Structure formats: structure tokens, C-alpha cells
UniProtKB/TrEMBL annotation:
Protein family: Belongs to the CTAG/PCC1 family.
This protein's name: Pcc1-domain-containing protein
Domain of life: Eukaryota
Annotated InterPro entries: CTAG/Pcc1
Any one Pfam family match given in the protein's UniProt record, by short name: Pcc1
Source organism of the structure: Piedraia hortae CBS 480.64
Length: 135
């Protein structure tokens, strides 16, 4: 039976879609905790509707039915062990969010792009289906 660790923390991070939450969870869960005195568990949670219809939400806000929460539960033997583990987690989470913001496919298809993709790595502007690969 696993040893009970006395220091606990629950971290909840809200994502606009289940796909992004699952990507974050998959990315963050690859690395095991370095210490045997720290345990971590990931869970995806779809929050309950908060009353009212989604149609009543102002433009640009996430509807309750779309948002997904990535919950990360930490257990550690001491406050210090928990602090060190959580600091590393937040550094990794910040990197994952930064990559999503800059490289996610929705950015190219979304309004943030304004149609100007010149200079974006891997995107050739002005080419259409025929001859785009140079073949």
C-alpha cells in the first residue's frame, strides 16, 4: 500500500477546449516526479453549466459547455518538497501555454491572424493547391 503523504495541493487550470486540456495533460504527464516523496495525479474535469444559456454569453467568452479544467493533485512529504515540485510544474505549464498560444493550429484559422502569415515559419503565402510543393 502506498504511503500517505501529509501535504496536499490541488491546482485547477481552465482551458477553452477539451483538446487543448488533453494536450496540456499529455505534455505535462510525460515526466515523472523526481522525488519519491512527491506524487502527482492529472484529471480532466468538464465543469457543470453555471446556469443560463450559452447564447447569453458575450462574444469572446468561453461557454460553460466548452471549458475544461485540468486538475493536478499534488501530495508531498514536506512543504518544501511540495514547493519545489509545484514551482517546476508552473514553469512547465507556462511553457505549454506559451507554445499553444503561438503554435496552435487554431491561431492560423482564427481571427487573431488577420490573414497576414508572411514570415511565419512553414507557411508559404500566396501559393494555391497546384504547384505549391514545387513538384
Amino acid at each position: 500500500m502506498a504511503e500517505v503523504l501529509p501535504v496536499c495541493l490541488k491546482i485547477q487550470t481552465t482551458f477553452p477546449t477539451e483538446r487543448l486540456a488533453a494536450i496540456a495533460m499529455g505534455t505535462l504527464s510525460v515526466d515523472e516526479e523526481l522525488s519519491k516523496f512527491v506524487r502527482r495525479k492529472f484529471t480532466l474535469i468538464a465543469p457543470a453549466l453555471e446556469g443560463g444559456k450559452d447564447d447569453d454569453k458575450p462574444n469572446g467568452t468561453m461557454s460553460s459547455s466548452e471549458r475544461v479544467v485540468l486538475q493536478t493533485d499534488y501530495e508531498a512529504s514536506t512543504d518544501r518538497m511540495l514547493r519545489v515540485a509545484v514551482n517546476g510544474y508552473f514553469e512547465n505549464l507556462a511553457l505549454v501555454l506559451q507554445v499553444m498560444r503561438h503554435l496552435d493550429e487554431d491561431v492560423i484559422d482564427g481571427d487573431d491572424c488577420n490573414g497576414d502569415l508572411e514570415g511565419v515559419q512553414g507557411v508559404e503565402v500566396g501559393l494555391t493547391g497546384n504547384g505549391a510543393t514545387g513538384g
